[in-house]
Amino acid sequence: MNKTWDWKTDIVINSEPKNESNPRTGTFPPSLVRGHMFHGPANSSDVFIYGGTTYMGNQSFQGYSRPDASTYPLWSYTYDSPDYPWMQYDISQPWRPNHGAAAEAIDQGLGFYLNGQIDAGTSTKTLRLNDTNVYTPLDGMLVINLVDHTSQNISTPNLTGDRPRVSGSMEYIAPVGGMGILVAIGGQIADKSPLASSSGGQLLDFSTVDVFDIDSYVQNPSSNGTWYPQKTTGEIPDPRIDFCLVSISTTDNSSHHIYLYGGINPTQNNTMYDDVYVLSLPSFAWTNIFRDGESPRWGHNCHVAGNRQMLTVGGNITNLQCDWEAKGVAFLDMSDITWGSVFLTNTSTYQVPQKVLPAVGGTRDGGATVKEPKEGWTNAELKKVFDTPRRQPGSTPAPSSTNEPEKKSMNAGAIAGGVVGGVIVLAVLAGGSFVLWRRRRAKANAPSELPDDQVSKPPEELGDEKKTFELQGVNQEPVELPGADPAELGAAREIVEAPRETATKAAELPGTNTVPGGKHGVPIVRTPDDELPSPPISSIDSPPPATSPPPDAQKT
After folding, report:
1. Residue 321 needs a FRET pair 20 to 30 A away by CA distance; which of 6, 226, 401, 516 works?
2. DSSP letters of 303-320?
3. Digit-coded pLDDT (tens) for 342-382
4. Residue 442 CB contacts under 8 Å (≥ 6 apart), including other chains
């Protein structure tokens, strides 16, 4: 990405195998779909793959491999190493989810994975589901520390729909709030049941989005952080899933813009979309900037490339046809709204599209004048988040502005105490200086002694604190999962619905920042299988004995 190129003529595929195994265990990474790829911390040369499920649509294929255990849901890949090693990590989570919404704070070394599902391809323990269209939704949001490879599962109260969602998407907006925000958009929610079908449930519309204040979690991880629903206005897109998102801000950070491209509606005759919408913040107004294209696309992924281009890769262009070579890569100039095959390194900085200007005000270069939603804030506390200035990771947040009278009284006492303390310190310093002067005169010819080294002890860490959270549908390690037999189904539901305490690990926040001249990128990688909803399979096959992970596999 450091030079201009045309994907139609300049792409050279290097066929040299690089899919090497873990050098410590000899284990090869699993072949999965509907996982997510993380960029990793800004100062790291590793990329990360999290989650995913084994494709179960063609089990007679000679390359088919049965699902493995869920012990190692996180893998890293060192792309600048001569041997291209993979590493695997146990992050103390019971399942390897897929089809969730993910985003990443590269400057903080954190990855976020919202809800998602487990299904027949998740692990050896879920093979009894035996149906590629049946899944169990997962509650909560996983916060993954990509520096020390730990994780914490936090609950997600107040999310729109009040149920776990799959196949939606999420974006990280770094300049908003003390430590940035996450904006969760769309998805499919199932009926209230431990089992769900991809052909059932309902799609979340885009008239409401959910905003997560990362700072609320960073300051108090045990609180799970705070989600805020926010109503949107403007040209609201039709409900859909398996779309892709990218976000970009003006240079003065007066407005932020989330681009939504493509998608599919499986509940309405598999309607597919070839359009682009922009959700502008803080106005939370939708604008349609490209509609009714000739190549619908879903299951693809998008990235910000260069100064102002959106790079889209892969996806499906029909119900069962994978977009393989015909139009596998395309670029959208997010300022001029033009599609092309050429990646440009000489473009100017991002400018707000002319069509989007009414939603934000100001000029194309910034200076937005619309500072709040047209119909007001759904929750007044969200306005405070947008008014909070951004701070660097690891810095102390500004004091709260609440309880002003008490604050003034405390400040007055602090000032008085500071004055008295200052006088005492000055007196001590003066006396000490006099004694030191007398001592030096008495020992004029003696060598000066250096003071003893004093090492301050670090404050006690709070690493022992742990909190448990519920995962919907993954309670207890299930021995059997429901199949066609009604008796087994009922028993399995009792198992699934029983409460479970999930062991978690606290994630420390690294002090990494984006490299100079870099941009916060949020790669969204989701590769769905090509199967569309179909009637459940009635037979149940017994799975083979579960295989244990290598005893010497790396574990954090």
Report:
1. 6
2. EEETTTEEEEE--BSSSS
3. 999 999 999 999 999 999 999 999 999 999 999 999 999 99
4. none
- Give DSSP secondary structure letters for 145-190: ETTTTEEEEE--TT-TTSS-EES-EEEEETTSTTT-EEEEE--EE-
- At 194, is the secondary structure helix, strand, or coil? coil
Domain boundaries of the chain, sorted by first residue: 5-394
Give how far Cα 552 sits from Cα of 25, 95, 257, Å.
6, 20, 46
Pair type for strands 285-290 and 301-305: unpaired
Spatial distance between the Cα atoms of 36 and 97, rounded to a whole number of angstroms: 10
**Residue 217's closest CA among 152, 146, 138, 149?**
152
**Exposure of 203 in the CB half-sphere (CA atoms within 13 A):** 24
Give the span between the Cα atoms of 181 and 48, in whole angstroms. 22
List pLDDT tens digits, range 278-294.
Answer: 999 999 999 999 998 88
Q: What is the DSSP letter of 552?
A: T
Task: Determine if the peptide bond prior to 516 is cis (ω within 30°).
Answer: no
Which residues sit opposite 6 in a β-bridge? 342
In Å, what is the CA distance from 66 to each residue of 60, 61, 90, 394, 526? 11, 11, 20, 43, 21
